Every structure is written in C-alpha cells, then in structure tokens.
Amino acid sequence: MEEIDPRIKPILDFIIPIEEKYPGLGIPVLYGVLSIMANKSVMFIGIRGIGKTRLIDLIPNITGTIVSKWDTFTYGGFHKFCQKISDADGKVKDKTLVFKVEEFSTFSQQHREHFLTTISKIISDGSFRHITHQYYIDVENCKLTMLIAIQPRIYSDLCSKYTEWDSLSYDRFTKFVLINPLRTGTCREEFHPTLPEKMTQIETFDIENLDLSCLIDLFSGHVSRGRAEIFALDYVRALAEFLGCNNVEQWHVDLFYRLFHPYLEIFSLLQEAEDLDSPVMVRSSHLKLLSGIGSSLDYVPKKELAELFHVSERHVERTARELLEKELIERYPGREAKYRLSERFRRFFEMYRDGSLFFLDVG
User: Fold this and answer.
1) Are strands 329-331 and 338-341 parallel, antiparallel or unpaired?
2) 57: closest CA among 188, 242, 177?
3) Fewest CB within 10 A of the end CB: N or C in the chain?
4) Which residues contact 165 (CB under 8 A, 6 or more apart)?
5) What averages of pLDDT result for each successive group of 10 residues across the chain (363 residues)?
6) Non-local CB neighbours of 325 within 8 Å, separated by 6+ positions
7) Residue 274 confidence (pLDDT)
8) Which residues pair with 144 in a beta bridge?
9) Which run of H or of E encompasses 146?
C-alpha cells in the first residue's frame, strides 16, 4: 500500500507551513535550502507576480553561512560588505557566503557586469581581489552560493549578450523554472520557515550501490555531463542531511527526482540551437508562455494569454505550437484555442496539491 513514509517527516514539517500561506512554494523553497547545503547556485526563472521574490525571501539562513541580499551591485557596496565580515588583516577568508538576489531586473547594465566579474571568480576560484586607493577587497578560499530570481527575458538577454553569463549559467547554475498552478493569491504576512532540528553532516558515502542515472540525466540539461554527476551527488547528499540521515541511500535519489524533476526538466526541454554554430539557448517567449499556461491546472484561453503578455493572439498561437511540439502543453480538443500543461506535469501538481506526491511505496 502507499502511505506517507515517516522518514520524510522533516520535509513535510518544513513544507506544510509554507504551503498554508504560499501554496506551491514549499518545494521550490526546499530546493533553495538544498542548493545552499550543496553549495550549488540556482536561478529561479519565472514571470512577474509568480512569487519569485517571496520564494527567495522564504529560504532560511543555514548555520555557518553568511547571507546577504543584493538589489544592486557596486564595488563600493561590496567593499563595505567585506569590511563587515573580514578578519583582522582585512581579508575575507574561509567563509561560506550566500548571495540572494530577489529580482535581477533592478541591476543596471554596469552593475550586472561588475556582479558577473566578481561572482564568477569567487564561484570558480574561491577568491577575488580588487584593490585600489578607494577599495580593499580581498576574498580568499571562500564558497559562494547564488540564489537569483530572474525574469525569462532578462535571463535570455544575459546569456545572449554576455558570453561570460552564458558560460557561468551553463557550468555553475541549475535553472529552476518556477511554474505554480497552485498559487491562490498574495499573502503579505511575515513568515519564516523553520529548518529541521536534527540535520546531519555526511562526510563520505558509498556511491557504488546508488543508481544516479536519473539525476545525472536531469542535471545534464543544466551543466556539462561530467559536472552533472557532481551536482547529483551533492544534491542527494544535501537531501539526506536535511532528513537527518547518516548515509545516502537509493531512496534519497528517488525522492529527489520525485520532488524536483518537473521544474528542472522543463528547462532542459526548452533548450534549442538554430544551427551547429549557434549557442544553445532558451527563448524567453517559451518560458513566459509556459509560465502563463502553467498558472492554472485548467485550460487557459489564447485570448487571456495574449492580454496577459500584451501580444497578439497569433503570436500566442505560434509560440504555443512550438511548446506543443516539445510536449510541454496540450491544446483543447474543441474549436476554441486554449491550452494547459501536458498530462505528466499536470499530474505532478495534482499530486502536490492533494499530498499524494509524498506517498512512498513502503510495501
């Protein structure tokens, strides 16, 4: 029979209070927590009003990390931040940093360039130096996790205009496409989720008996194949630690896939290249329309989508045709043009809503 496995109680205790106030954000917030624990950066991609800012804000601080929020970025601002957390010699050394960006659209073009220069060095090398007569910035041997909320158009623009962003996005970030048909409205009540009391730290574990293929395939749509295995291992370890386990087992792998695969798989399915000489891209029109259709479990009329995005119905129909080819959505069988998520994604959110997503086969 199927029942809620008591082993995942820490997940339910964390998610349910979030769901009571912000339906559909519990699992995305959990992914943010696991990203910090795994030291893996993530871009939460979604349209305006879907809850990106609230999602970033709900991700709780984890002991041992230094969390900061950024709505713009200058060397002067980063200099002041470093001064607050530096050692006696002025260096920021051996720290675990978490940078939260609740809406990347607030960054000017120049600030985006400075931000890119800084975070790419810290993420890849663990260090960054910028020493002038005005500023002394010396970061050494630090870990940095980025949690960025970003709109589809801005994500696409960054990757097309800045080769560094494209490379960094492909090599270091997972892209979490925020689809939320469970959202019921706006809640402005202040709320801070509580982490489990008994999270563990797993230094080493045996991977020989783990079948990670489903997660490696999942992350291969986000990072290189070799790095995808590292992402799979680090994320599944983080999930086991969140649950208070002392070892990583196959059911952790299966549970991670069960909870997160739609959000990550959607990005992979949206990728395309015009030809062999062109970079692999994700079109913002696809992301936007899918988010609009994915705002409901029911059919959404073409006219309503056109009004939402201020485009023609013909443009909606053309973009929807491309999403249909990728089997991400389905069209109403009658004469009226309206669309909904494809059955497998719709089924995930139905199970999320009624709680059966958390039923595991325990014999």
Assistant:
1) antiparallel
2) 188
3) C
4) 116, 158, 159
5) 77 95 95 97 89 92 95 91 91 95 85 86 91 88 94 81 68 90 78 92 89 94 89 97 96 96 92 64 87 93 94 94 94 92 96 87 44
6) none
7) 65
8) 97
9) strand 143-150
**Which of these, 177, 210, 198, 149, lies nearest to 292 by C-alpha position?**
177
C-alpha pair distances (Å), 282 with each of 177, 193, 237, 244, 278: 11, 32, 29, 37, 12
Query: Which string of b and e fits 331-354 if b means at least 16 CB within 10 Å?
Result: beeeeebbbbbbeebbebbeebee
Distance CA 159, CA 164 (A): 8
At 323 the pLDDT is: 95
Nearest to 316 by CA among 325, 303, 327, 328: 303
* Alpha helices (H) along the chain: 9-21, 26-38, 52-58, 75-85, 109-125, 152-161, 163-172, 213-220, 225-242, 250-270, 284-293, 302-309, 313-325, 343-354
φ/ψ of residue 184, rounded to 5: -115, -5
Dihedral sign from CA coordinates of 300, 301, 304, 306: positive
Rounded CA-CA distance 154/94 in Å is 32
